[in-house]
Write a structure and sequence with these properties.
38% of the residues lie in helices and 18% in strands. The protein is built from seven helices and ten strands. The strands form two sheets. An eight-stranded parallel barrel has the order 1-2-3-4-7-8-9-10, surrounded by six helices. The radius of gyration is 17 Å and the shape is globular.
Length: 254
């Protein structure tokens, strides 16, 4: 489970032919692990397969948590669950997955986005925790689904909440409280967000402490501000920017 002292880096996985190439991501992961970061998360946006690239990175690292952030609907969540389990076994229990929606546009209701994210989270969790589960949702269905091999301790699944109107954020926090282990969300103080998540988790019958909260920061340089000890921190450099080893060490020390 991602802990409260997390220092995670989120970068886009890139597309075939992009510069930097795959080996640059391997070097980034090695530098991140040496600097003391806890996690590297690759965001898939229609380019390289994040799980395939993370499999290569797993062979070059020993302690670094390895995450994939995928938009809902990119592929069936049962296939994501299988890839997550495979990465978790391959890496010795270092994998995690985030559902990473974009803010709804064109007046699309936040509740519709939250419902889609919620179903994907439920499928991911079921296939990590229950042998041959059945599930019947609005968008996704399972019938004695198979997901082996998998580790006895399931990898965490979570949601990367986008910058969105308050009602959309509230709807996403509500589904996260029911089905996520990890939430990455900005736009308010960690204390306020932690309180909102704890309240939603209690309403869902999960209780305080069921969720881990990371807060994201952006920019080409590591954040300078102190972080609330209740949260982990996730750094999102601009697309195409891979931080230097010195910058990674600076981030790890915050």
């Amino acid at each position: 489970m991602p802990d409260a002292s997390a220092r995670a880096l989120l970068v886009d996985a890139g597309a075939p032919g992009d510069n930097p190439g795959p080996e640059a991501f391997v070097a980034l992961a090695e530098a991140a692990e040496a600097a003391g970061l806890t996690h590297l998360v690759l965001r898939a946006r229609g380019g390289r397969d994040a799980f395939v690239l993370l499999g290569r990175i797993a062979a070059a690292t020993r302690r670094l948590g390895l995450g994939a952030a995928l938009p809902p609907g990119e592929r069936p969540p049962a296939l994501v669950a299988k890839a997550l389990s495979s990465l978790d076994v391959l890496s010795g229990g270092r994998a995690l997955a985030l559902v990473a929606p974009e803010a709804p546009g064109g007046g699309a209701p936040g509740a519709d986005l939250a419902a889609e994210v919620g179903e994907e989270l439920e499928v991911l969790r079921l296939l990590q925790r229950v042998p041959a589960p059945d599930y019947r949702g609005v968008r996704h269905h399972l019938r004695r689904a198979w997901n082996e091999p998998r580790r006895p301790v399931p990898p965490p699944v979570g949601v990367l909440v986008p910058a969105a109107p308050p009602d959309t954020v509230a709807a996403l926090l509500s589904v996260a409280a029911r089905a996520a282990d990890l939430v990455v969300v900005g736009g308010d103080t960690p204390r306020v967000l932690a309180g909102a998540l704890e309240g939603a988790a209690a309403a869902a019958g999960r209780g305080t402490g069921a969720l881990v909260l990371w807060t994201p920061v952006g920019g080409t340089t590591p954040p300078q501000a102190a972080l609330s000890p209740a949260s982990g921190l996730l750094w999102r450099p601009p697309p195409g920017h891979l931080p230097s080893p010195d910058a990674l060490r600076g981030f790890a020390s915050r």
